[in-house]
Amino acid sequence: METLDNDLKINGKGLSFNGAVQGYLKAMSGWAVVISVFVFLVMICQIIVGAYLLWLNIQIEDSIYNAEIKSTYAIVGWLYIAIGGALVFPGLYLIRFSINAKRAFETTDQGDLEFAIRNLRNLFVFAGSYVSLFILLIVILLFSVFG
């Protein structure tokens, strides 16, 4: 098993896992913690705003004039909660990347580095899926409004 303290040659083509690359990965793992804290804070704020909108929905009187407002608050409230809940995954991927990348450099264990990189890949897969979903929702909304 290869360890991280040696320069690794990948496929014999001259790519190396040298000190500069290790420095970049260490910096990335440090920034991943900062970003994950912000992701969790945004998640908490979105869930609080969604819960507040649902609470407002309950407080509004039932009348014919308030029907649209009530349904809008309910839809937007549940949407905020759903988006906030989905933000758990990128936060977890970033934390797991950071912890395992730091551990890989401390213990020179290849398995920890592979797990860290796998979590980074999962973050990008999630982000791509998330963006694709929102683009699809925007297109559907545009067609429903202007179609």
Describe the structure.
The chain is an all-alpha fold. The chain has one domain. It is built from four helices and two strands; from the N terminus they run ββαααα. The chain has helices spanning 19-59, 67-86, 88-107, 110-146, and strands spanning 9-10, 15-16. The chain has a two-stranded antiparallel ribbon. It is elongated. The mean pLDDT is 86.
Task: Give the SSE map.
Blueprint: E1 9-10, E2 15-16, H1 19-59, H2 67-86, H3 88-107, H4 110-146
Antiparallel strand pairs: 1-2
Helix pairs in contact: 1-2, 1-3, 3-4
What does the radius of gyration come to?
22 Å
Protein structure class: mainly alpha
Strand order of the largest sheet: 1-2
What is the first-to-last residue Cα distance? 59 Å
**What's the number of helices?**
4
What kind of oligomer do you see?
A: single chain
Mean pLDDT rating:
86
Q: Would you kindly provide a brief summary of this structure?
A:
This protein has 147 residues and is mostly helical. It is 80% helix and 3% strand.
Task: Based on the model shown, name its key terms.
single chain, 147 residues, mainly alpha, 2 strands, 80% helix, 3% strand, elongated
